Amino acid sequence: MASAAQLEDVPNDTLFHELMRRMRCAPKQEKRIILVGPPGCGKGTQSPILKEEHCLCHLATGDMLRAAVAQQTPLGLEAKAAMDKGALVSDDLVVGIIDEALQRPSCAKGFILDGFPRTVVQAQKLDAALEKQGVKIDKVLDFEIDDSILEERITGRWIHPASGRSYHSKFAPPKVSGKDDITGEALIQRKDDTAEVLKKRLTSFHEQTTPVIEYYAQKGIVKKIEAEKSANVVTEEIRKSLA
Hints:
Layout: H1 4-8, H2 12-25, E1 31-36, H3 43-54, E2 57-60, H4 61-71, H5 74-84, H6 91-101, E3 110-114, H7 120-132, E4 139-144, H8 147-155, E5 157-159, E6 166-168, H9 195-217, E7 222-226, H10 231-242
Parallel strand pairs: 1-3, 1-4, 2-3, 4-7
Antiparallel strand pairs: 5-6
C-alpha cells in the first residue's frame, strides 16, 4: 500500500483520474468472470472492454507468475524455486498468487480470469479459495470458434508486450504499422504464433478444457459466445450475457 509520502509524489492528474475512476466504479455490480477459448478466439480483444466497462481487474496467470517472481513475493520466490528446478508451478501456488492479487483495490469489483483454470482440479481449487472469501465465479464465457478459422487469426496477430493490447494485420491493424496505438511502442509477434505450434496448442486445449467447461456447465454459469463473429458483435453478445 502506498504511504502518504509516496502519494505526495503522484501527479495531480493521475490522482484525479484514479479518483474519478473509483467514483464511476462505485455503483458497479461485482462480477467474477472466467474467459475460456482457444488461441486466437478473441479473448485478448474483449478483455480490455470488459475490464473498462465493469471496472474489473484482468488476471492473466502467466503475467502474474512473472510479476510475482520479479517482485520476489513469498509465493513468487516459491514459484521461482520450482521453475529453476525445471518443475511445473503447482496448482496451489497459482491459486495462491491469484488469491493474493484479489486483495488489490483494482480487483474490488471483481475480475476477469484468463488462462486459468485449465483442468477440473484447478477449477475446484479456485472455487475453494474463492469460497473462503465468501464469493464465487459468476459467469464462464466459452469462446466457441472452428479450428480452421484460427490459423489466419493467429499468424496475423501482433502484441504490445507492456499492456497486452493485441492487433491483427488484417482484422484489427494498428493506426501505424508495427506500432501500438496508445504509446507508439513497437509491437511484437509471439514465437508460438505459427500454424505448427497452433495445431499442438489446439489439441492440448480441447483435451484439457472440455472437462472444465462441463464442470462449470453443471453449475449453470457457462455462456457460449460465437467467437467467429466480428469483434463488435461479440462485444454485444457478451454484454447481453452479463446483463
